[in-house]
Amino acid sequence: MQKKRTTEHQTSYRLNKYLALCNVATSRRAADQLISEGKVSINNEIITDFSFQVNPKIHKVKVAGKEITAPDNFHYVLLNKGKDTITTRSDEKNRKTVFDYLPYDFKNELKPVGRLDRNTTGLLILTNDGDFIHKLTHPSNEVVKIYQATLDKQVSKNDLENFRNGVKLEDGEFAPDEIEILDTHNVVGIQIHSGRNRIVRRFFEAFGFKVTYLDRVYFAGLTKHKLPRGKSRLLTEKEVRYVHAHVKDRHTNKQEPN
């Protein structure tokens, strides 16, 4: 999907939101830090007010002396990531990155929404809409993800009960939203809303299981339907609206977008 940034209803943006929109900061908190450190100027005047309203038509915004602008058009791409692929723009070891699989002439504008580790496959969204990235990655929004995990040994009913009770990891307690055994007793479906690093793999390791294959099959209301491994497509306008609605109320039962 390609979507125009400006609308008739919004001509100005809160300063920290505008920095996120421009992909200058990975989060509103990071944007606030840039502002509080005096690194942001508007029309050559340092601004430390987070709530300052930026009108891109009349304000020239600079961060650390470099002028920034929000994209004229937003792009939203859904990728079914393959194995042995890095979720980054480049790699010092010359390994394949997710950008190697994107055929779009605007791909250099895109950033991944979160990360999948090298050997985790499945759904990944890439966009140049910084505010959209912030919305999907902020912990308070509790974006739902579902993984299919293949384990190195079979899971018993007792194991499943232990999984549901959760575990204390080095960075805090964690329990899945839902977890079920799938077709075979070493393959489970696990639903989470945490964005902590390698959380699914670390969760199973805490119980003595090793994840041999991990695939994200659902992310923020989207599925891999008709999207082969290593392929990507543009999100439709309907899907972008659906993702926004999913983030606003993840507990509401909604039908998948057609």
Description:
With 258 residues, the chain is α+β, with helices and mostly antiparallel strands. It has three domains: 2-68, Roll (Structural Genomics Hypothetical 15.5 Kd Protein In mrcA-pckA Intergenic Region, Chain A); 73-138 and 226-248, Alpha-Beta Plaits (2-Layer Sandwich); 144-219, Alpha-Beta Plaits, CATH 3.30.70.1560. The chain contains six helices and 18 strands. The chain has helices at residues 15-21, 28-36, 130-137, 157-165, 199-205, 237-248, and strands at 2-4, 13-14, 40-42, 45-46, 53-54, 61-63, 66-68, 73-81, 111-112, 120-127, 145-151, 167-169, 172-174, 178-181, 187-192, 211-219, 222-223, 232-234. The strands form four sheets. Strands 1, 8, 9, 10, 11, 14, 15, 16, 17 and 18 form a ten-stranded mixed sheet that branches. Strands 4-3-6-7 form a four-stranded antiparallel sheet, with no helix packed on it. A hairpin with a 2-residue loop joins strand 3 and strand 4. The longest helix is centred in the C-terminal third of the chain and has 12 residues, at 237-248. It is elongated and about 65 Å long. Residues 5-9 and 250-256 have low confidence and may be disordered.
